[in-house]
Amino acid sequence: MNTFWYFENINLFKILCPHKYPAYKKEHTFNNYRKSDYIYFEEDAANKIYLIDSGKVKIGYYTEDGKEIIKAILTKGEMFGEKAILGVEKRNEFAQSIDNSTLICPVSKDTMYSLMRDNASISFKIYKFIGIRIKRLERRLQLLLFKDTKTRLLEFFNELCEDYGYECEKTGDQVVNHPYTQKDIATLIGTSRPTLNALMNELKQESIIDFNRKELRILKKIA
């Protein structure tokens, strides 16, 4: 597995959650969100960082004409709201639960600074995480602006392969067990569910991928 969201096979929740540290354990709480609940809105104060214990969260914003733009869909072990660490005072995006039960660990900015100050390894992991996330979001924006839907989908499959894939010893295929639904994928690449289904079936007929409800296989290397 590539270490994009997970460093050294340990997720960020397990590394950073304050309940792991005696000095912060007493003040530590979890928040439970239902589907469609917002964790924060655009223009809210950016004074916390959030870790996902379970469930899924989408990060996005609304255009002036009210169109929803999704930047990322995050799952267990991931962090969001990280711009607070960089000194941003207000949110420029929203965060919304898209699972019926999403458990979030909120960490105050001051607590996170203390954890980072006391542990150089944690600081390195966080800044590496932020840097890689920014690069990936920039790449996704470029694809949305300049590439067709099929190219965006193939690029997304490359990301999935890096993040969640492993090689099948018997066939040499790349097997990808990922947490996204087809609706999630369609949202992230900026297309509709019917278009996504048609493209996936086309790629299957071309023997580039194979898939079922639980698994995606990359049969040919995607350029």
Structural overview:
This protein is of the alpha+beta class and 223 residues long. 37% of the residues lie in helices and 25% in strands. The strands form 4 sheets. The protein has a 4-stranded antiparallel sheet with strand order 3-10-5-8. The protein has a 4-stranded antiparallel sheet with strand order 4-9-6-7. It has a 4-stranded antiparallel sheet with strand order 11-12-14-13. A hairpin with a 2-residue loop joins β1 and β2. The longest helix has 27 residues, at 120-146. It is globular and about 55 Å long. The protein starts with 5 loop residues before the first strand and ends in a 5-residue tail after the last strand.
| Strand order in the sheet with the most strands | 3-10-5-8
Tell me the quaternary state.
single chain
Strand content: 15-25%
Show unreliable segments.
1-10
**DSSP helix count?**
7
The string of secondary-structure elements, in order, is: EEHHEEEEEEEEHHHEEHHEE
What's the gyration radius in Å?
Answer: 18 Å
The helix content is 25-40%
Shape: globular
Question: What are the SSEs and their pairings?
Answer:
Elements lengths: L5 E2 L2 E2 H5 L5 H4 L5 E3 L4 E3 L7 E7 L2 E6 L5 E7 L4 E2 L13 E4 L4 E7 H10 L1 H27 L2 H16 E3 L6 E3 L5 H8 L3 H13 L3 E3 L4 E3 L5
Antiparallel strand pairs: 1-2, 3-10, 4-9, 5-8, 5-10, 6-7, 6-9, 11-12, 12-14, 13-14
Helix pairs in contact: 3-4, 6-7
